[in-house]
Write a structure and sequence with these properties.
Layout (H helix, E strand, L loop, with lengths): L12 H11 L2 H10 L6 E5 L6 H9 L4 E3 L10 E5 L15 H4 L1 H4 L3 E3 L2 H10 L6 E4 L6 H9 L5 E5 L3 H14 L4 E4 L3 H11 L4 E7 L14 H4 L2 H20 L1 E11 L8 H10 E6 L8 E2 L3 E2 L2 E2 L8 E3 L1 H4 L4 E13 L5
Parallel strand pairs: 5-6, 5-8, 6-7, 8-9
Antiparallel strand pairs: 1-3, 1-4, 2-3, 9-15, 10-15, 11-14, 12-13, 14-15
């Protein structure tokens, strides 16, 4: 592990207690917090719209980089890790700060710098050429460009984002990656879905709700999350997440699939949202298989009981796979039945 030369922010006592409860022991929580002060490995995704993984690997190895492809067993050779493990590197070398982003291969859109957990929602959703997909909270475009590559630029992606500045980043990344099957919209997510529902007959084959969250899983990249973390923020964000997930499910086709994901580990933002959907929609929570160590969703937390079905959701902890922390759940819509009273 390579440690950041940064201030070690101290986690708040309540945060420590919650992680101990989630992980089941103080020892496990200690591992979680220890790895939170280290960097994540440098991960990239080959943009198959412009280059084959084998050609990209050859080019990057010419720079002296050691390339690992951890998802080869599942046919995803586009996922690569730059191995910087010293003597075990077998001829590789450490990257200089900013080196990844300065290569001509990155500037030309041959690869996208993307952490492995960020790739998982689209891998699990598995969009196909010709389908109609909604990425409800799309910027900066990592998952949008990943979906476009899997769809071979065929079909249609609606990439929605509310923040104008972030739309600029989204557009820039799509242009760099050669994405041509995507329409960018600027709307608040719930209002966008309600407008689609009331004003059009458009229904989506697949939807990604990668919801804004408290970011507990991104401590390795954003250590200041230690400072801003508080339970009131979590509850406030969870209310927004629930509304986004509900609105999105209403415009999913019957038989369509939706991924609900966050880069946080708080049950209020994860299982509690899925539990609400289970109780108010006619849906099926699907099993997820990944070539990583995953833990099932929790069915009880701080006195709250959730549906047994939420166990099928996946939790990824940083110390299990040397990644960021993440949560994702795959849902199939069985009918348009809905008992949600709120907007």
């Amino acid at each position: 592990m390579k440690y950041k030369e940064k201030i070690k922010f101290t986690p708040k006592p309540e945060f420590i207690e919650r992680m101990e409860a989630l992980l089941g022991s103080k020892e496990e929580a200690k591992k979680f917090f220890e790895i939170s002060y280290t960097n994540t490995p440098d991960c990239i995704r080959c943009n198959t719209l412009k280059m084959s993984p084998s050609e990209l690997k050859k080019r990057l190895e010419a720079y002296g980089w050691k390339i690992k492809q951890p998802f080869l067993s599942t046919g995803h050779e586009e996922i690569m890790i730059i191995d910087e493990t010293g003597e075990a590197n077998k001829g590789g070398r450490k990257l200089n700060p900013g080196e990844l982003g300065k290569t001509k291969e990155h500037l030309l859109g041959y690869f996208y710098v993307q952490e492995i957990t960020s790739m998982l929602p689209i891998l699990v959703l598995d969009p196909k050429p010709g389908e109609v997909l909604l990425d409800l909270c799309a910027s900066p475009g990592s998952k949008t460009t990943q979906a476009a590559a899997l769809m071979e630029n065929k079909g249609t992606i609606i990439a929605n984002e509310i923040n104008l500045g972030r739309i600029g980043i989204l557009n820039s990344n799509m242009e760099r990656c050669g994405v041509m099957n995507t329409i960018v919209t600027r709307h608040e997510g719930v209002a966008f879905c309600e407008r689609i529902l009331k004003k059009t007959k458009i229904r989506f084959d697949k939807i990604l709700v990668d919801a804004p969250c408290s970011g507990e899983g991104t401590l390795r990249k954003s250590p200041r999350t230690f400072l801003i973390w508080n339970i009131n923020m979590i509850k406030k964000i969870a209310s927004v997440q629930r509304k986004l997930a509900v609105a999105a499910l209403k415009i999913l086709k019957v038989g369509g699939e939706m991924i609900y994901s966050t880069c946080t580990l708080s049950p209020e933002e994860d299982e509690e949202i899925v539990d609400f959907l289970i109780k108010n929609f006619d849906i099926k929570v699907e099993e997820i298989k990944l070539p990583l160590k995953t833990r099932c969703g929790v069915c009880e937390f701080e006195g709250k009981q959730y549906s047994k079905e939420v166990e099928k959701a996946c939790r990824l902890y940083p110390h299990d796979n040397d990644t960021d922390g993440f949560f994702l759940c795959k849902i199939t819509k069985l009918s348009d039945k809905c008992s949600v009273k709120e907007k």
